[in-house]
Amino acid sequence: MGSFCSRQKPYNEADTEENEQDAEIERRIARETKAEQHIHKLLLLGAGESGKSTIFKQIKLLFQTGFDEAELRSYTSVIHANVYQTIKILYDGAKELAQNESDSSKYVVSLDNKDLGEKLSEIGSRLDYPYLTKEITNEIKTLWNDAAIQETYARGNILQVPDCAQYFMENLERLSEADYVPTKEDVLYARVRTTGVVEIQFSPVGESRKSGEVYRLYDVGGQRNERRKWIHLFEGVTAVIFCAAISEYDQMLFEDETKNRMMETKELFDWVLKQSCFENTSFMLFLNKFDIFEKKVQKVPLNICEWFRDYQPMASGKQEVEHAYEFVKKKFEELYFQSTKPERVDRVFKIYRTTALDQKLVKKTFKLVDETLRRRNLIEAGLL
Amino acid sequence: MPQYQQPPSWRLEGGGQILDLETAVKDGILGGGAGGCGLGSATCEKVDLKKMIEELEPVEDVPSVFICPISLEPMVDPVTLCTGQTYERFNILKWLSMGHLTCPTTMQELWDDAVTPNRTLHQLIHAWFSQRYLRFKKRSEDVQGRAAELLETLKKVKGQARVQALKELQKMAVDHSSVQKTVADYGGVALLTSLLGPFTSHAVGSEAIGILVNLSLDSEAKVNLMQPAKISLVVDMLNEGTIDTKINCTRLIEMLMGEKDFRSEIVSSLSLLAGLMRLAKDRRHPNGTWTGLSLLKTICSHERVRGLIVSVGAVSQLVELLPNLSPECLELALHILDDLSTIPEGRVALKDCPRTIPNAVRLLMRVSESCTQYALSILWAVCKLAPDECASLAVEAGLAAKLLLVIQSGCSPELKQRSAELLKLCSLNYTATLFISKCKLTRTIQ
């Protein structure tokens, strides 16, 4: 017996050391997993140009340290690129309309500006854009003010004119200053097609500073080719924030100009709702770009979009806007209940009216989202 | 007979002393004047005892010597019999007029049927109630004052302070009916309504609704509340709140539906209907079930919304629910299903649900005549839609025997007529002998 024991000793020591290390590693893994569990994963989904990245930027501005000067400066090239892209799209669009439309004369750019147009169109097709000098700025401004270009802009929905067009055109002087540093608003308007996935981690600080909720927000590219990258993110998501730009009921996709954007959003939302990994995920639907919707709905009837063809206008002015909005909201609600199996109807589904560019509104909206998610947490833990 | 209770010590107004019954009697409760109110307050002399007792009702700790042994109510005009027992005048005279010549409590035979007014006791009772009355009035004013204060606060504060103010106001409104009037007088309804909007947090919204639902809302207030943004908020809270919040939201919507300008689009919300079904199905809270079903029934009376109700799967959920419902809820649920059977989608949903026929057959002649009527109507709708399929299922479930029961019962003639027609419809696929065998009441049905 004795020798048996003494022979075991050296092995035991080595073993215990290893066991000790293993145990330590196990403990660390357990701690980190536990820490991860308290982090709520939020996914920003939606079709291209629905406002996901703008919301992402807003969250960054609201709950993180915002953008420092270096980050702001990094947007300068993007903003300048937007300017060149916009004017090119408009000029090329004018030419196209002049050829194809019956009332072609109003789309013919004046003789003086034609050369400008050709030059700017050529610049816009390059991979690298030159810095926005005062000279070029004046040329762009002249072209923008051309009657034909304005007419073309009014038909912007059939071209791929970005929503930031007017804003940047109106601020051209400032954008071309030598020491231009983009403002927060400029950054929010800047348009870059997201590719891949971006994430930030933040803690919304409310009145009860001890709330301690930690969110990790993921932003993705919305175009079709980007969507296959989404599937990797779908596990363990607390909430999906689905952005739908309700102002695009009369526009076509960037990646497929034969497809209406609202129909694309409808199909996409349907697809997302049916994913089995989202069985217990809360859905926050952001009906975005309300500011553009407001103006558009009084001029362009909703039933231009196939999904909204049974819309009947009731009043006019502000009442009509409200009525139209409620109609769109009901359509999405209908879609939700159609796409959701009866067992899943218990998951949280809320609709919010948003204008992603308005920081105050986004802050208020997010406060509500946070409250809902916290309540949901408490309910699931049986505390409510 | 009421047990003798140790009377509680009273605190005299102004004096600030605590007295027991003996000292109170010695010291001035018996003070002069018609009212016998020793408290120096001019008002209580004029206030009539009967009125005070009514306003203070229900009072819990009335001293037992003040209670009439016949009616168990406080005595307003106490009279004493020759046996020394005291009763309320009206009650004892009634007793005697019925021919009884005994004292009700002691059972002794009365040697003298005269009744003597017990002035001493009357004064004591009056004084006791006066004191209580004064205290009640003062507390009422306090409460009303506090309510007015809270309303002022609500106009200024936000966030957590707002939630706290609302919570306090809600508690007061529930405990004191006088607060409701104060809230109405100080423009509280409009204020609370203005707090509800697309950016209202759940905490604020649920408290505000909790107060509003206990007030009487005029037409203007109701129309104000019917704005889509506010209704959306109420629906959201109905879906996410605690059971009390859910019930409050449901009750509020029901209140709005009573308004004459009510348009059915307001309740044509799938979220609302799904939320109500969830509330109705929640077995842990039967009063929630009743409230939810009640609103669903009211909504169902609007024909245009019936299709939506069917589309959220209400039919199968209600049918599954039937065996577990209390009689009041059962009537509501059957009424809803009957309404839904008037539209094609409803009929199809009823037919497709496997439990419809067995549950409906089971309910015939089991709970009440109206339940039987609804169940019969549902069975009719289903059997007419698919006679071959459903009639045989129904007969297998024991329908025939039940229908015979209805026909032989004391139910209304229309009901019997319908039962006879349904019986005929079901018998079509059977030979006479086979059908008769199906008509026998099996033990389970009995």
From TrEMBL, chain A:
<keyword id="KW-0460">Magnesium</keyword>
<comment type="similarity">
    <text>Belongs to the G-alpha family.</text>
</comment>
<keyword id="KW-0547">Nucleotide-binding</keyword>
<feature type="binding site">
    <location>
        <position position="356"/>
    </location>
    <ligand>
        <name>GTP</name>
    </ligand>
</feature>
<feature type="binding site">
    <location>
        <begin position="188"/>
        <end position="189"/>
    </location>
    <ligand>
        <name>GTP</name>
    </ligand>
</feature>
<protein>
    <recommendedName>
        <fullName>Guanine nucleotide-binding protein alpha subunit</fullName>
    </recommendedName>
</protein>
<dbReference type="InterPro" id="IPR027417">
    <property type="entry name" value="P-loop_NTPase"/>
</dbReference>
<dbReference type="InterPro" id="IPR001019">
    <property type="entry name" value="Gprotein_alpha_su"/>
</dbReference>
<feature type="compositionally biased region" description="Acidic residues">
    <location>
        <begin position="14"/>
        <end position="23"/>
    </location>
</feature>
<dbReference type="GO" id="GO:0010476">
    <property type="term" value="P:gibberellin mediated signaling pathway"/>
</dbReference>
<dbReference type="GO" id="GO:0001664">
    <property type="term" value="F:G protein-coupled receptor binding"/>
</dbReference>
<feature type="binding site">
    <location>
        <begin position="288"/>
        <end position="291"/>
    </location>
    <ligand>
        <name>GTP</name>
    </ligand>
</feature>
<dbReference type="GO" id="GO:0031683">
    <property type="term" value="F:G-protein beta/gamma-subunit complex binding"/>
</dbReference>
<keyword id="KW-0449">Lipoprotein</keyword>
<keyword id="KW-1003">Cell membrane</keyword>
<dbReference type="GO" id="GO:0003924">
    <property type="term" value="F:GTPase activity"/>
</dbReference>
<dbReference type="GO" id="GO:0046872">
    <property type="term" value="F:metal ion binding"/>
</dbReference>
<feature type="binding site">
    <location>
        <position position="222"/>
    </location>
    <ligand>
        <name>GTP</name>
    </ligand>
</feature>
<feature type="binding site">
    <location>
        <position position="194"/>
    </location>
    <ligand>
        <name>Mg(2+)</name>
    </ligand>
</feature>
<dbReference type="GO" id="GO:0007188">
    <property type="term" value="P:adenylate cyclase-modulating G protein-coupled receptor signaling pathway"/>
</dbReference>
<feature type="binding site">
    <location>
        <begin position="188"/>
        <end position="194"/>
    </location>
    <ligand>
        <name>GTP</name>
    </ligand>
</feature>
<keyword id="KW-0472">Membrane</keyword>
UniProtKB/TrEMBL annotation, chain B:
<dbReference type="Pfam" id="PF25598">
    <property type="entry name" value="ARM_PUB"/>
</dbReference>
<dbReference type="Pfam" id="PF04564">
    <property type="entry name" value="U-box"/>
</dbReference>
<comment type="function">
    <text>Functions as an E3 ubiquitin ligase.</text>
</comment>
<dbReference type="InterPro" id="IPR003613">
    <property type="entry name" value="Ubox_domain"/>
</dbReference>
<comment type="pathway">
    <text>Protein modification; protein ubiquitination.</text>
</comment>
<keyword id="KW-0833">Ubl conjugation pathway</keyword>
<dbReference type="InterPro" id="IPR016024">
    <property type="entry name" value="ARM-type_fold"/>
</dbReference>
<dbReference type="InterPro" id="IPR011989">
    <property type="entry name" value="ARM-like"/>
</dbReference>
<dbReference type="InterPro" id="IPR045210">
    <property type="entry name" value="RING-Ubox_PUB"/>
</dbReference>
<dbReference type="InterPro" id="IPR013083">
    <property type="entry name" value="Znf_RING/FYVE/PHD"/>
</dbReference>
<keyword id="KW-0808">Transferase</keyword>
<dbReference type="GO" id="GO:0061630">
    <property type="term" value="F:ubiquitin protein ligase activity"/>
</dbReference>
<protein>
    <recommendedName>
        <fullName>U-box domain-containing protein</fullName>
        <ecNumber>2.3.2.27</ecNumber>
    </recommendedName>
</protein>
<dbReference type="InterPro" id="IPR058678">
    <property type="entry name" value="ARM_PUB"/>
</dbReference>
<dbReference type="GO" id="GO:0016567">
    <property type="term" value="P:protein ubiquitination"/>
</dbReference>
<feature type="domain" description="U-box">
    <location>
        <begin position="61"/>
        <end position="135"/>
    </location>
</feature>
<dbReference type="InterPro" id="IPR045185">
    <property type="entry name" value="PUB22/23/24-like"/>
</dbReference>
